[in-house]
């Protein structure tokens, strides 16, 4: 077994309300024939505010992939170390206790990966296993948790540090004028998290009992990047909304196998917030009252979809809600592939 | 335990000899003050020939990251499936037997990763775990082997398909005129490999006994990318040559712990071919006669440094050399970080 300890989540300093974002898009594309529809759809996302690594007027001028990569790297180095130090402290561990470091981020690219920076900056052991994950998008946080759990199962001092960081704003493409680009530009937010998975269970948190992975065939076009001179261009096919009906039975099967009960009988949920509609589909197909995923809804409202960081932001909110020891929960996230990663866990206090 | 089965290695159709590459660089940069020195250093690499996904005259015109990403994706989809089918056949497994698919590639970027393509195209199970590794450069092949071994240790049907592909030529930057850029342009080659790690040991090959990871502090600048509008720009600090003296004692310690003997007493070596000097440093610090790494030297001469594919190309040559059952070997690769990944194994026949 292994336990996900209390994560530490950081947000960059610049904030933008959804109203400000709508005004920004309206002013930038004042003659766009579908702006009224875009505005309605953006209001429908139920994102109220997001954090950005640069103010929106700077982001509206595309300074190129070269410049944005420099901004990405500087912010990544600063914020990842700060989050990681606090996460180690939350877990009651020291840098020398870490055996593997995983970094997830799909909104910029560095080689060496930030795993190298973290070993140097925190003073992790020279034998630390590095696992950078760049290509799993929004599901990468849950994938990191499940791979960390695998590694922790091998040895009871195989503690893992997971750092997730997304500066989605550096993938904002002001010249992309398709409807789905406007929605993405108003949906994704920036954030950094760090979380320790303790292999010895000597901590409070989400104690993992079982994990599962799911891939939906022939759905590569649902969520994808076009890689261009101007960086990563996100594209989303609305067919992605149909994926949850296929994932829900897999989630129920994992839940039945681990707890011998339906999801509806679980105590808590740590769900990725792909968007409001994804959460609506989840509660519908898992037969849950809507308020059971309120932690995810609050995260979406306060931070936007922060990609691989979401599950850690929701986990942080779960810590704050003082759950009962032994309560039964489920963690799940979704991303490109189409891919889902799921974990069953009980609350250890 | 787990066994690396016979890999399948494919090369793209275009070939270039080192003499042709020198002529190309001389013609492109006829007034460069250090071209004579560059020529001597390129001859010193002992690369005779390389394979390229596009002919050199096309590569000399930088068509932009947008266009190169399209070329990368098409070649990656075609060649990865072909290599993977043969690798499964070599391992005596069917697509439905695969539990994890790892793809390593640092010379292009796709999201969804090629792992999604392989699940779709080969018909791997919907529960297949995906692990795309983009940021470990030349060490990614050995890192994939070691993470596959970890996963296989959990369950004896946890078979892993590892696909490595590098189209380094699509990172050729004809406008980069520093000396190290000329050397890189003449050193790195294109190739694709696929290899199955069987968790149940029911196959011939490299049976893994133990693995280790090593990180050299404060060496992020040794091997790195600058990420620009024109794609990935490789930079190499010559200080990287000093890294092997620090890695060698770690390799010897792993060897002593597993075999109770020095590396010099081993029967075979599957070494990454960072370059001629890296191989020279390895034999010097491990006290080996130079011809003990002849498989790596031949790979370098015939294909150039094919990054994360190298260890699989050398493993393929090891299969062809009909090693004695029970002979003792060591696999090691090096890459950005500076990072080394190592595995001890015996030959199973």
UniProtKB/TrEMBL annotation, chains A, B:
Naturally occurring in which organism (per UniProt): Pseudomonas solani
Domain Chalcone/stilbene synthase C-terminal: 212-342
GO molecular function: acyltransferase activity, transferring groups other than amino-acyl groups
Active site, UniProt feature: 138
UniProt family annotation: Belongs to the thiolase-like superfamily. Chalcone/stilbene synthases family.
One of the protein's GO biological processes: polyketide biosynthetic process
Protein's name according to its UniProt entry: 1,3,6,8-tetrahydroxynaphthalene synthase
Lineage: Bacteria, Pseudomonadati, Pseudomonadota, Gammaproteobacteria, Pseudomonadales
Annotated InterPro entries: Chalcone/stilbene_synt_C (IPR012328), Chalcone/stilbene_synt_N (IPR001099), Polyketide_synthase_type-III (IPR011141), Thiolase-like (IPR016039)
């Amino acid at each position: 077994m292994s336990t996900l300890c209390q994560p530490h989540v950081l947000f960059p300093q610049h904030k933008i309300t959804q109203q400000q974002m709508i005004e920004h898009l309206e002013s930038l594309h004042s003659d766009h024939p579908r702006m009224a529809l875009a505005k309605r759809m953006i209001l429908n996302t139920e994102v109220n505010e997001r954090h950005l690594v640069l103010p929106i007027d700077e982001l509206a001028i595309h300074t190129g992939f070269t410049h944005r990569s420099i901004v990405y790297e500087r912010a990544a180095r600063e914020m990842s170390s700060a989050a990681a130090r606090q996460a180690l402290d939350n877990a009651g561990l020291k840098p020398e206790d870490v055996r593997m470091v995983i970094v997830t981020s799909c909104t910029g690219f560095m080689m060496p990966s930030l795993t190298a920076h973290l070993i140097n900056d925190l003073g992790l052991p020279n034998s630390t296993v590095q696992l950078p994950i760049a290509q799993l998008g929004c599901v990468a946080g849950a994938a990191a948790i499940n791979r960390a759990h695998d590694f922790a199962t091998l040895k009871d001092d195989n503690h893992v540090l997971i750092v997730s960081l997304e500066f989605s704003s550096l993938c904002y493409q002001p010249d992309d004028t398709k409807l789905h680009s406007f929605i993405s530009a108003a949906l994704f937010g920036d954030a950094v998290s760090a979380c320790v998975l303790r292999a010895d269970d000597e901590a409070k948190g989400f104690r993992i009992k079982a994990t599962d992975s799911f891939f939906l065939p022939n759905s590569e076009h649902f969520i994808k990047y076009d890689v261009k001179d101007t960086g990563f261009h996100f594209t989303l096919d609305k067919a992605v909304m149909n994926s949850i009906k296929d994932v829900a039975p897999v989630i129920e099967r994992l839940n039945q196998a681990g707890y011998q009960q339906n999801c509806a009988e679980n105590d808590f949920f740590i769900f990725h917030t792909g968007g409001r509609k994804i959460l609506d589909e989840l509660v519908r197909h898992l037969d849950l009252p809507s308020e059971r995923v309120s932690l995810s809804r609050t995260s979406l409202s306060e931070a936007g979809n922060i990609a691989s960081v979401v599950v850690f932001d929701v986990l942080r909110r779960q810590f704050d809600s003082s759950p009962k020891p032994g309560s039964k929960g489920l963690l799940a996230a979704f991303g490109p592939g189409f891919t889902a990663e799921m974990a069953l866990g009980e609350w250890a206090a």
